[in-house]
Design a protein that fits this description.
Strand content: under 5%
Distance between the termini: 30 Å
Number of strands: 0
Oligomer: single chain
Radius of gyration: 20 Å
Helix content: 55-70%
Amino acid sequence: MPSALQSEPSIYIGCCVVLWGVELGLRAALLSTGVLMAIAFGSLWATAVLETMDGKLNIAAWRWLFFIEGIVTVTVGVLSMWLLPDYPRNTRWLNVEERCLAQLRRGRYGLRRS
């Protein structure tokens, strides 16, 4: 996010809609919302772990947080190898029209290999 627009997210999202259109503006809005939600709930979750897990099994709370976050990260990384598609043509959860649109966009932006 450009530094000049960090103080006013509503201006940033509005600029995205004007510059990129509604679809990409909506994507930027969802991404920004997801980041804010992750920061808010991640901090609450980390605080709960740090306050309740200290001394359990003679392990410090910060180590519990490190272990738990590491396990979640590795799990998401391994699952993403099977859940994320390689190319639009072999994506099971897109219909025919969406596959054609994705392949058209790949060709438009120079990503020819599919």
